[in-house]
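Protocol step 4 of 6: structure prediction from sequence.
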Amino acid sequence: MKEAHHKFLKAAISEAKKSALEGGIPIGSVLVHNGKIVGSGHNRRVQEGSAILHGEMSALENAGRRSAKFYQDCEIYTTLSPCPMCSGAIILYGIKKVIIGENSTFLGEETLLRSKGIDVVVLDDNDCKEMMQDFINKHPELWNEDIGED
């Protein structure tokens, strides 16, 4: 794994762990602009009673209001493959690169992202996989709620 990928994925994993400590779903994300984290966040659906605060959405929210050009110069790191909602936000803001910790637990809209010319990199990170699998085993009801299954 490239040094930069490791550094930023580690920050996303740290966000995911914050969510778990808060009783939430351990998915984290960071938005990076020119090699600097400008927004970080984690899934806060459980903590905030929110329908939309996934890790990527939280990172975008915490980056604040920015210009379209700013987002086009960003890349986003996420511990888990982005769902349709988060992928839509990535497309909407013109983010050119998505770096994913793992996609074996959940395969999001990677094909859609690629079809829009977005560079999608899957790191197949064992820490991300273990974190999600452990959560799913311990909290299947929260996992099913988050991904739309009952």
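Step 5 (inspection) to follow. Helices lie at 3-21, 45-48, 55-63, 68-72, 84-92, 110-115, 126-138, 140-147.
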